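Q: what sequence does this backbone want?
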């Protein structure tokens, strides 16, 4: 109670300050990728025009893992420098205490949002962030090359492996020495957790930590999935994939040097752009499965806007978040950045369908995306994920077999869990 009282007083003081000063300076931090900065700046310019406030973009490195470390430093220091944080979907439970509860502020609009997106940002009854955009990856493939070699779109990872190898070999033989079969995110960071969760789940190997908190990751199907992934390194995927993040993979695919790519939605608009060498030559499909009868698994991604408890201008920051996530701005982002929106209605927008066919096409994949165990493992998610991507990265690097690394991982996760998450 005391805490709430203090906060309300701070809020009132901050509001008075901004009223007397007229215009307010705000700062928003995000990890820009692709066209994010460009589109955000355009939207902020309109906000500035409408409100008279000024908003600065603080741009972060591409890796969500690096961003999160920096966010935690600022938040621990109660920094007043940042008003609005763009937070990865997995972050809410870990940093909830540092954010304003947005439930009341957005009570009038929250029902327009995709329910699962809202749910992912609710921590102990508090709305930590207003969902900005979602993510569900695709298998990008070179339609032209599949046609050229009479190959089908692969339904299983094993088919993908064989087709990638065949086309890569043939293209290299024909003089295209830079061609690779498959690129993905193999660096030791959160992106690898997403990729590996997809391989393992689609082999029937379960989750890193199950929704009920149990740890079943040390199983034969998970090992089989990792063994297959290990076989890609240095064959259909360059050795360098072990350092690839999203933009590295896109760079190779978009310049025409990969048959297949696993990537998030943002890559679609860029690869289809006028200046893209693969424009008109690629298509997307759901990620393959590990075995017949198993389901394709696409990790749920996305980024959401939270207002820092340490902001000196919470009211204006709340207004900014409302503005950035309004229909027009979400529609603009859907069209220009091919990021799946968080407002239900934007998926049915005729202009979006006409100008960005990926959005309505991908709605069912977004709806069925597989969350990471951030809710089940609460504050320990970051450590869980880090143990997981380390085990996977070691396996891909040839440092221990899948079986050995999964056994070690199981022991580490059990220790981390203790009596409960
Ligand atoms: C994308 C996803 C995010 C995920 C990250 C991993 O940005 O939206 O949820 O953690 O990729 O690299």
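A:
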């Amino acid at each position: 109670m005391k805490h709430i009282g203090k906060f309300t007083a701070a809020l009132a003081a901050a509001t008075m300050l901004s009223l007397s000063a007229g215009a307010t300076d705000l700062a928003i931090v995000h990890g820009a990728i692709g066209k994010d900065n460009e589109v955000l700046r355009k939207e902020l310019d309109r906000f500035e025009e409408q409100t008279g406030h000024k908003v600065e973009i603080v741009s972060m490195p591409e890796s969500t893992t690096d961003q999160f470390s920096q966010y935690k430093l600022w938040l621990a220091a109660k920094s007043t420098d940042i008003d609005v944080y763009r937070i990865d979907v997995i972050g809410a439970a870990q940093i909830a205490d540092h954010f304003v509860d947005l439930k009341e502020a957005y009570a009038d609009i929250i029902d327009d949002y995709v329910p699962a997106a809202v749910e992912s940002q609710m921590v102990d009854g508090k709305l930590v962030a207003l969902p900005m955009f979602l993510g569900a990856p695709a298998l990008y493939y070179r339609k032209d090359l599949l046609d050229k070699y009479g190959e089908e779109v692969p339904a299983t990872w094993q088919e993908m492996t064989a087709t990638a190898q065949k086309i890569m070999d043939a293209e290299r033989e024909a003089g295209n020495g830079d061609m690779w079969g498959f690129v993905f995110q193999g660096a030791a960071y959160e992106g690898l957790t997403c990729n590996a969760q997809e391989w393992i789940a689609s082999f029937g190997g379960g989750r890193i930590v199950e929704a009920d908190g149990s740890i079943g990751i040390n199983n034969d199907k998970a090992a089989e999935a990792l063994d297959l992934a290990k076989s890609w390194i240095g064959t259909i995927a360059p050795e360098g994939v072990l350092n690839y993040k999203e933009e590295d993979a896109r760079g190779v695919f978009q310049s025409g040097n990969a048959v297949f790519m696993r990537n998030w939605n943002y890559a679609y608009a860029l690869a289809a752009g006028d200046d893209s060498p693969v424009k008109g030559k690629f298509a997307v499909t759901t990620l393959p499965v590990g075995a017949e009868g198993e389901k394709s698994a696409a990790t749920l991604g996305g980024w959401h806007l939270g207002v820092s408890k340490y902001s000196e201008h919470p009211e204006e920051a709340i207004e900014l978040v409302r503005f950035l996530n309004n229909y027009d701005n979400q529609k603009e982002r859907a069209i220009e950045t091919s990021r799946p929106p968080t407002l239900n209605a934007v998926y049915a927008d005729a202009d979006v369908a006409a100008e960005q066919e990926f959005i309505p096409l991908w709605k069912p994949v977004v709806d069925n995306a597989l969350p990471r165990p951030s809710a089940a493992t609460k504050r320990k998610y970051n450590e869980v994920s880090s143990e997981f991507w380390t085990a996977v990265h070691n396996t891909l690097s040839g440092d221990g077999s899948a079986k050995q690394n999964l056994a070690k991982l199981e022991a580490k996760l059990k220790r981390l869990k203790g009596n409960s998450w």
